[in-house]
Amino acid sequence: MRVGVLTGGGDCPGLNAVMRAMVRKGVKQYGHEFIGFRDGWRGPLEGDTSKLDIPAVRGILPRGGTILGSSRTNPLKAEDGVRRVKENLAKHEVDALVAIGGEDTLGVASTLSDDYGIPCVGVPKTIDNDLNATDYTFGFDTAVNIATEAIDRLHTTAESHMRVLVIEVMGRHAGWIALHAGLAGGANVILIPERRFDIDQVCAWVESRFKVRYAPIIVVAEGAMPKDGDMVTKDGTLDSFGHVRLSGIGDWLAKEIEKRTGKEARTTVLGHIQRGGTPTAFDRWLATRFGLHAIDAVHERDFGKMVALRGTNIVRVPLAEATAKLKTVDPSLYEEAQVFFG
Ligand code: F6P
User: Fold this and answer.
1) What is the pLDDT of residue 89?
2) Where is the protein localized (predicted)?
3) pLDDT, tens digit, for every residue of 239-276?
4) Angle at CA 274, nearest 5°, toward 148 and 219?
5) What is the position in ligand 1's atom list of the atom closest to the CA of 170?
6) 217 near 278, Cβ under 8 Å?
């Protein structure tokens, strides 16, 4: 078989590990050939390809990013998109396409597979960990470790100056990074998109923390919203999946806290540092296993499926089920963290 591969959406540590595992097993065990498509769905849409053989995947296991490049191109929005994708797959004699991506990239794979008969297999990635039907996505553990280290470092400088330090982490619709890193780093307040926050309550937690002679650390997900406000966005522009660019809630919080409590407050926006660089051992392990199982699904022609982690097992679930809704933070998980607030 000739297997096409693409990586779409925001990049994430572990993408290269998936491709290495697929190519190594696919070539060695099944005798398959591979072809890479560049920059997510732009590759099949425009017929932009890249060599993907064993030499191409040598040495990439610990490398962040993606050797194929990524983009947020949506072929379903492009003129004649489906026809062009089909034509380019046929031109390159592709028998199956593996899409490695999050809700948007895999949503396209699901439609192309179910509605247009394009043989796709999905592999779930996102640092946000918000894909349904899998316990974890790779990239998340790396992001949480980076954010936790940042929180650890912020504690000592916050205490030296008795300042409030706000740290803004990624998480558009789901607060998994904020919750896990906040718990691991001993944050005094964690704010997530799933639960609107009351700024008066946040200020009360800040004041109570200062009473025990410690400076508070607040972890806020970029998609978190005050009770009577909206998401804070960078500008109004939308990507081709209709997402607006976020960031700014950290600065908004620091200003409000200074105004209301009189305490000095500063913000650190972690941004793309959470997505760059080498994956943790857990993410390399998960990405490698996803790759091994994805090529098995391809070999068995089990299309329209996504590989997923359940406990320690890798299973296959329908792409349509995985992309039907987002996996957000369960209220009980947020409530258990609240004992540490203030
Ligand atoms: O989808 C993952 C993610 O990291 C989100 O948390 C964030 O909102 C978004 O990507 C940022 O993407 P970009 O770098 O393309 O603006």
Assistant:
1) 98
2) Cytoplasm
3) 888 888 888 999 999 999 999 999 999 999 999 999 99
4) 45
5) 6
6) no
Residue nearest to atom 3 of ligand 1 (CA): 10
Q: Quick check: 323 and 110 in contact, CB under 8 A?
A: yes
* 303 Cα to the center of ligand 1, angstroms: 28
Q: What is the pLDDT of residue 240?
A: 83
2-138+279-323, CATH topology level:
Rossmann fold (3.40.50)
274 is in an annotated binding site: yes
Distance from the alpha carbon of residue 275 to the mean position of ligand 1, in angstroms:
9
Catalytic residue numbers? 128
pLDDT of residue 32: 98
The H or E element that residue 185 is part of is: helix 176-185
Domain 141-275 CATH superfamily: Phosphofructokinase domain (3.40.50.460)
Question: Distance, CA 1 to ligand 1 centroid (Å)?
Answer: 34
- Give 191's contacts (C-beta < 8 A, 6+ positions apart): 175, 178, 197, 202, 218, 219, 220, 221, 224, 249, 253
* Mutational pocket test of ligand 1: of 11, 137, 172, 231, the residue with most ligand atoms within 8 Å of the beta carbon: 172
Is there a binding annotation on residue 272?
yes
Nearest to 327 by CA among 168, 179, 149: 179
Give mean pLDDT in consecutive 10-residue pieces for the chain, a chain of 342 residues. 98 98 98 98 98 98 98 97 98 98 97 98 97 96 98 96 97 97 98 97 97 93 93 82 89 97 97 97 98 98 98 98 96 97 96
